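Sequence in, structure out.
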Amino acid sequence: MSQLTLNLPDNVAADLVEASRQSNRAPDELAVELLKRALAVRRFKSARETIVESLGDRAPETDDDALKLLP
């Protein structure tokens, strides 16, 4: 596993600490989970945009429809 040091704004760090207390998880463990989710959403949006551009008028109207088209 790689190590990465982040400088967080005070309010973000406080929110992370509070969320970690509420979930009974270490702040770094929660941060990794949240980053994974955010990156997955980013990848999905990029894939959806590619699908929409390539299909033009035949593009899916919903995210559920777009998911069905992914390999």
